[in-house]
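Worked example 3 (structure in, sequence out).
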């Protein structure tokens, strides 16, 4: 080989730099992807995606009434009308008409039901006829008395002048005395007939069952065709035809333990909540403290009146009574939304609470909460029924996965 050609020979370095550069780029990309993966995994771990769900207990955001803060005592009872009657008949008979039904409003003296009374009506007609005969007899006796009295005065004058015999004057006087006795007898007979007629009318009135006071018919206890008897003394007879109550006398009767009766006083302001009317509250006051205790239950009966009766309040509704230490103002009649103080915690030095939403712990900051009793007051957009984490664990972080404990 020629020397000049050998001097021109050299290693082509370009064929080696290409693969080395590609390897370096590949390493950089892989390193970047590894760093990005580490960052993503760290972020996911921080968000709780890669961590197991934390088991927590929850409590609901509740409507809090200001009265809860000033309540001395709570008790349960029932709405009871103070004027209530099982209306029955004093007479015995078959029910032929029922003029009312459940819910009917009646006035005192209104006819509620009628019993068969044809025999008593006949007695009334008979006594009235006898009374008419007796009055006619009195009129006849009165006429005879007038005539006898005139004859007696005439014969008396003639006898004094010795124009008639004294015996005739004595006969005239006897006739006058008999006529006067006849009038007295007729009058006494009329009084007896009037009493008999009044008794017959009273017995007839017993066949009409009337309302003893203004009120509402609660229940119907007998049907047309059934026999009604006083006190249900007859076999298969009904005593009460209807049960009615004066809805204006509704009170809440509640049993208060003897140990807490010292916290109750007459006129004490109260707040009544009825199970049938949901969250509505009704102001009231202590009306009666019954001056005796129930030895079997160790309680004293307290009756609470409503400041204003609502037509939706019905007898026998279950009720809860809060005995307050002072009256409520108008501004304190409306509830506010609150979360229990046991749900509050701190994250990075900021106070707040976790909402349990979509199996995540959603952080809500409350830097300076206002409290009403044991509840921190919340503002919209929160609503009653939302779940908050109760006594959250210290390791719980915002947006962490959670699982509600059973």
């Amino acid at each position: 080989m020629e020397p000049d050609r050998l001097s021109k020979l050299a290693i082509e370095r370009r064929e080696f730099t290409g693969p080395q550069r590609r390897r370096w780029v590949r390493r950089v990309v892989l390193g970047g992807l590894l760093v990005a993966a580490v960052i993503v995994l760290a972020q996911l771990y921080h968000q709780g995606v890669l961590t197991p769900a934390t088991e927590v207990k929850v409590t609901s955001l509740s409507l809090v009434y200001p009265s809860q803060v000033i309540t001395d005592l709570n008790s349960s009872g029932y709405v009871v009308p103070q004027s209530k009657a099982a209306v029955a008949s004093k007479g015995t008979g078959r029910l032929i008409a029922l003029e009312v039904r459940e819910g009917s409003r009646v006035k005192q003296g209104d006819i509620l039901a009628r019993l068969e009374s044809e025999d008593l009506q006949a007695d009334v007609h008979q006594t009235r006829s006898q009374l008419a005969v007796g009055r006619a007899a009195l009129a006849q006796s009165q006429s005879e008395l007038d005539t006898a009295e005139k004859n007696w005065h005439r014969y008396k004058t003639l006898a004094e002048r010795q124009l008639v015999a004294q015996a005739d004057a004595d006969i005239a006087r006897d006739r006058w005395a008999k006529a006067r006795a006849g009038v007295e007898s007729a009058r006494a007979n009329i009084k007896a007939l009037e009493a008999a007629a009044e008794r017959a009318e009273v017995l007839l009135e017993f066949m009409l069952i009337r309302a003893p006071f203004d009120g509402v018919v609660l229940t119907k206890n007998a049907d047309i065709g059934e026999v009604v008897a006083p006190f249900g003394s007859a076999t298969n007879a009904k005593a009460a035809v209807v049960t009615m109550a004066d809805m204006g006398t509704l009170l809440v009767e509640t049993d208060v333990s003897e140990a807490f009766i010292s916290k109750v006083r007459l006129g004490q302001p109260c707040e009544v909540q009825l199970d049938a009317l949901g969250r509505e509250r009704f102001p009231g006051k202590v009306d009666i403290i019954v001056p005796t205790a129930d030895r079997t239950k160790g309680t004293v009966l307290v009756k609470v009146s409503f400041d204003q009766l609502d037509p939706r309040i019905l007898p026998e509704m279950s009720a809860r009574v809060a005995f307050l230490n002072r009256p409520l103002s108008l501004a304190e009649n409306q509830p506010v939304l609150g979360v229990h103080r046991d749900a509050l915690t701190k994250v990075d030095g900021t106070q707040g609470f976790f909402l349990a939403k979509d199996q995540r712990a959603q952080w809500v900051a409350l830097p300076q909460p206002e409290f009403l009793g044991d509840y921190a007051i919340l503002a919209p957009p929160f609503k009653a029924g939302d779940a908050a984490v109760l006594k959250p664990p210290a390791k719980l972080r915002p947006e962490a996965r959670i699982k509600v404990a059973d």
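Notes: The helical segments are 3-8, 14-47, 118-160, 166-205. The longest helix spans residues 118-160.
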